[in-house]
């Protein structure tokens, strides 16, 4: 693929939230929610972003879309730096990137009909005639598996899966190139999860969409992703294609995550890696490798020297001192 196929580039992205205390609300520290994350996504590709709660996954998604401003780093959408774009320019860029939220009920305005919810982006960001908006909304309803007669209903009249389909239709209204999906199926029943995931994959094939798919569910990530990035305490610790990650994980944290996932085959067993303790506070992360406080393989070097992302083979990056062959620094 050429560089023209790259939809999103993220370089050394950081988001630190200030912590205030005392009567005068002085700043006493920072929550290092995202602390140096880099990746890219190409057209028609899904990058899965996984990790424990508190690892910074959702913050990455919101920062990429500029729903919250980054502390530092670069965010490029189709080659254009949007990191510090002003409000007027961001209004234009909003057409290119949209979001599907975790809660399909809380993310929809309960006072608007389904038709208005899907039509609102078109009314706000385009100048097409009202009659054409009506036709496009009707077509979007059909494309996501909703009936045109449901356009007059309100969010509380839909099921959870239908509400999420409504959210997908809204995200597609402006024909974006990038969609950030933040835990889009975690609030749905398992049978409905499969329907929504298959819908997202069909839409990707049809419109050549790029997805940043955020989830803690490894089975879901394995089903939909082309590449997977594993996050721990604000940093990506492993990044590679889906098949390699699930067949040959290199980072100790990735191995622990995969060992905790249920095995679908009856009677099949998997060696369980038990991690001690909880994820450390992002206000005061450990020195050196941030995973060393829970890593069963940690050595003295891990406690003082932070590992850089390095290639262990083509397309497979790992941030670990103990992985053999990790010699070439990642760009």
Question: Can you describe this structure?
Answer:
The protein is built from nine helices and 13 strands. Helix 6 links the parallel strand 7 (178-182) and strand 8. The longest helix is centred in the middle third of the chain and has 18 residues, at 190-207. The relative contact order is 0.14. The protein is α/β, with parallel strands linked by helices. Helix 4 packs across helix 5 (160-172). The strands form two sheets. It has a nine-stranded mixed β-sheet, with helices on both faces. Strands 2-1-4-5 form a four-stranded antiparallel β-sheet. It has helices at 57-64, 87-93, 114-125, 130-143, 160-172, 190-207, 218-224, 242-247, 252-260, and strands spanning 6-21, 26-42, 46-50, 72-77, 80-81, 97-100, 178-182, 210-214, 227-232, 235-241, 310-313, 316-318, 328-329. It has one domain: Rossmann fold (3-Layer(aba) Sandwich), CATH 3.40.50.
């Amino acid at each position: 693929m050429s560089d023209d196929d790259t939809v999103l580039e993220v370089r050394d992205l950081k988001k630190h939230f200030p912590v205030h205390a005392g009567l005068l609300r002085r700043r006493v520290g920072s929550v290092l929610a995202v602390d140096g994350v880099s990746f890219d996504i190409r057209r028609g590709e899904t990058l899965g972003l996984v990790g424990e709660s508190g690892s910074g996954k959702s913050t990455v998604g919101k920062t990429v879309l500029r729903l919250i401003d980054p502390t530092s780093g670069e965010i490029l959408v189709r080659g254009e730096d949007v990191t510090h774009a002003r409000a007027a320019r961001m209004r234009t860029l909003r057409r290119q990137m949209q979001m599907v939220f975790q809660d399909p009920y809380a993310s929809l305005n309960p006072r608007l009909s389904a038709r208005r919810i899907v039509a609102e982006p078109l009314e706000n960001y385009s100048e097409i005639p009202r009659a054409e908006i009506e036709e496009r909304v009707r077509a979007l309803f059909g494309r996501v598996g909703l009936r045109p007669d449901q356009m007059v209903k309100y969010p509380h009249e839909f099921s959870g899966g239908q509400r999420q389909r409504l959210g997908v239709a809204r995200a597609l209204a402006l024909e974006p190139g990038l969609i950030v999906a933040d835990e889009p199926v975690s609030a749905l029943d398992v049978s409905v999860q499969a329907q929504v995931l298959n819908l997202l994959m069909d839409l990707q094939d049809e419109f050549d969409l790029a997805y940043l798919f955020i989830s803690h569910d490894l089975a879901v990530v394995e089903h939909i992703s082309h590449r997977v990035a594993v996050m721990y305490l604000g940093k990506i610790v492993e990044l590679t294609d889906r098949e390699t990650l699930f067949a040959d994980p290199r980072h100790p944290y990735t191995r622990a995550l995969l060992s905790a996932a249920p095995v679908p085959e009856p009677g099949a067993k998997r060696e369980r890696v038990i991690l001690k303790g909880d994820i450390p506070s992002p206000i005061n992360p450990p020195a050196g490798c941030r995973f060393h406080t829970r890593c069963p393989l940690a050595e003295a070097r891990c406690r003082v020297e932070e590992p850089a992302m390095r290639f262990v083979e083509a397309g497979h990056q790992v941030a670990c001192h103990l992985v053999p062959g990790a010699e070439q620094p990642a760009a």
